[in-house]
Write a structure and sequence with these properties.
The complex is a heterodimer of chains A (111) and B (111). In chain A, strand 3 and strand 4 form a beta hairpin. Chain A has a five-stranded mixed β-sheet with strand order 1-9-8-3-4, with no helix packed on it. In chain A, strands 2-7-6-5 form a four-stranded antiparallel β-sheet, with no helix packed on it. Chain A contains no helices and nine strands. Helices cover 0% and strands 58% of the residues of chain B. The chains are: A mainly beta (111), B mainly beta (111).
């Protein structure tokens, strides 16, 4: 199983971009990178996913390095409501999603 | 978000009780999942149902019994639980290899 490593916590000023890194050096060629976030004891919320190309949606951008061994989630203008634990996950399995959640990064957005 | 609903939201039960957790997805997905999140631990995948068939059981004790009567509903039947089973139980659904969408969870306390 491809494992991910993320910093335990990060701070970001409100209105600034938040860049959350993730290492997944053992990722296989057909494994996707997913990002979720969890706001205090709520269900995890899907943010974005990608395989090898950079992706952008209304919530965030995902930058995946060319060797696919790491990625960065970018929240372009962080707000206080973005304070949460962010999980970087590599999807395992070909028939359905088997997600293995790690400890994630606690993002603290400060005024 | 109301795509995946879970009831009850909170549950307190004794070790000799029998209770059931219910999950319903309104997204037309064909796969459903149960996760457990204990305090200060990562989410743990418990069960996976794909087209109503159980395709994954991550060595979960038999005191947890899942049931998937159709692709929209998922139950977790609980009996003779232990205090260490107290946790947030999360349900999720996905369509094939797409993203998993989570419900708000059931906070369970076993006394």
């Amino acid at each position: 199983d491809a494992k991910t490593t993320q910093p335990t916590s990060m701070d970001c000023a409100e209105g600034r971009a938040a860049n959350l890194p993730c290492n997944h050096s053992t990722i296989s060629g057909n494994e996707y990178v997913y990002w979720y976030r969890q706001i205090h004891s709520q269900g995890p919320q899907y943010i974005i996913h990608g395989l090898k190309n950079n992706e952008t949606n209304e919530m965030a951008s995902l930058i995946i390095t060319e060797d696919r061994k790491s990625s960065t989630l970018i929240l372009p203008h962080a707000t206080l409501r973005d304070t949460a634990v962010y999980y970087c996950i590599v999807r395992v399995g070909t028939n359905f999603n088997k997600f293995y959640f790690g400890s994630g990064t606690k993002l603290n957005v400060k005024p | 978000e109301t795509g995946v609903t879970q009831t009850p939201r909170h549950l307190v039960m004794g070790m000799t009780n029998k209770k059931s957790l219910k999950c319903e997805q309104h997204l037309g997905h064909n796969a459903m999942y149960w996760y457990k999140q204990s305090a200060k631990k990562p989410l743990e995948l418990m069960f996976v149902y794909n087209f109503k068939e159980q395709t994954e059981n991550n060595s979960v004790p038999s005191r947890f019994s899942p049931e998937c009567p159709n692709s929209s509903h998922l139950f977790l039947h609980l009996h003779t639980l232990q205090p260490e089973d107290s946790a947030l139980y999360l349900c999720a659904s996905s369509q094939d290899l797409g993203a998993q969408y989570f419900g708000p969870g059931t906070r369970l306390l076993v006394l």
